[in-house]
Amino acid sequence: MGDNGLQAERRKPWNxxxxxxxxxxxxxxxxxxxxxxxxxxxxxxxxxxYPIVLKIISKTILHKTDVGGVKLEIxxxxxxxxxxxxxxxxxxxxxxxFLVQKFYEGHYVLIGMKRDxxxxxxxxxxxxxxxxxxxxxxxxxxxxxxxxxxxxMMQEIKAYPVLEGARGGIKVNKGLLVEILLAVSRMAMExxxxxxxxxxxxxxxxxxxxxxxxxxxx
Length: 218
What we know:
Helix content is 36%, strand content 28%. The chain is an alpha+beta fold.
């Protein structure tokens, strides 16, 4: 697949079948609901419980945060309506729907896999969220990986002290991250048709590690 084809695949909207595969391997996903109207968003937020996250679903927008297509930590209905109306006004022609998602507080990390032509599936771990392409703080291992590999991958990134709770911050549950890394490794080995797995971010704190954004390229 050429670069243009790959970009097109990456622009695919939130995909329930991808989430089903993720769940099959025991990777925690956020409570979320896809909606088409503002009232559906309001009803979904009430059912999920505030705070929530509102995201656009779009075939054409790759980096949703860059264009204001993601609003975090919405605390009430008024804030939700304002966020929905603002996104719809600015981005209407590129919006295929919205995703209402439970908000999780914690550190953002990236866990992923890319199938290399020489080495096969390569698992990645690093600082996640909007900074992954800027900081490039990522470690790699060729799959299949062991628990020891997973721990070493976490320890190798420059941001590891942050995960340990540096300067009074949140100390993450590293055991949960190890489980997700091992699950991604297994998924890559057992599903050769998968070219890339991108869990970014995985939001992790003392008790939870949740893959709040998932992309699978086949």
